[in-house]
């Protein structure tokens, strides 16, 4: 049987003070190891949807299952712990701690996730293996994040999302600030590492040309279409 990593059912979300925007997702699922590109117009709710999946927002109705847990039934602190254990997040601006070293940044999620820490095994080795796999020199491990080039920061952000093999990697427009060549190199590394770890990848972009790299492309229009009764 195919393992489902993410399952949204009848999700309904409104920003309470913004009646003009509401998000409704009848049914969306991702399989283990699947890579999905999420496209949509600016303001269509892509980031809102990712925040719901990560559990930093909670819907007014519906269920959001990540691996074996329904995020909507967990307390706020249980959601935070669950996110740290099971989800690797890559932000648009990478969000590295500028005064932390590369090692501090890569190992950050493990501080809040004992099971993920255990999965990572020897944390020093896991960090070095990721640096090697991502083509970063080992000497960079003690550098402060603020001294890194943008290309190096991207790779550290990928390593931070992948350490300890979370089931789901969420990436919110991680290539929007990059030129075409850098973008392509970044995606090569990201896909290689996601495949090696067996994770599923949900990536938001404005760029439909990236579709060929993914198993499947969905648009916000598709996702929010009401179910047709049969
Ligand atoms: N913190 C917030 N409080 C209230 N409304 C918000 C908040 N964040 C986003 N919104 C509104 O929710 C709607 C969807 O925004 P969202 O950022 O999810 O769209 P998006 O598809 O990710 O857009 P973009 O591609 O421009 O990043 C917009 O109308 C936006 O103004």
UniProtKB/TrEMBL annotation:
<dbReference type="GO" id="GO:0016887">
    <property type="term" value="F:ATP hydrolysis activity"/>
</dbReference>
<keyword id="KW-0067">ATP-binding</keyword>
<dbReference type="GO" id="GO:0022857">
    <property type="term" value="F:transmembrane transporter activity"/>
</dbReference>
<keyword id="KW-0547">Nucleotide-binding</keyword>
<dbReference type="InterPro" id="IPR017911">
    <property type="entry name" value="MacB-like_ATP-bd"/>
</dbReference>
<dbReference type="InterPro" id="IPR027417">
    <property type="entry name" value="P-loop_NTPase"/>
</dbReference>
<protein>
    <submittedName>
        <fullName>Putative ABC transport system ATP-binding protein</fullName>
    </submittedName>
</protein>
<dbReference type="InterPro" id="IPR003439">
    <property type="entry name" value="ABC_transporter-like_ATP-bd"/>
</dbReference>
<dbReference type="InterPro" id="IPR015854">
    <property type="entry name" value="ABC_transpr_LolD-like"/>
</dbReference>
<dbReference type="InterPro" id="IPR017871">
    <property type="entry name" value="ABC_transporter-like_CS"/>
</dbReference>
<feature type="domain" description="ABC transporter">
    <location>
        <begin position="6"/>
        <end position="230"/>
    </location>
</feature>
<dbReference type="GO" id="GO:0005886">
    <property type="term" value="C:plasma membrane"/>
</dbReference>
<dbReference type="InterPro" id="IPR003593">
    <property type="entry name" value="AAA+_ATPase"/>
</dbReference>
<dbReference type="GO" id="GO:0005524">
    <property type="term" value="F:ATP binding"/>
</dbReference>
<dbReference type="InterPro" id="IPR025662">
    <property type="entry name" value="Sigma_54_int_dom_ATP-bd_1"/>
</dbReference>
<dbReference type="Pfam" id="PF00005">
    <property type="entry name" value="ABC_tran"/>
</dbReference>
<keyword id="KW-0813">Transport</keyword>
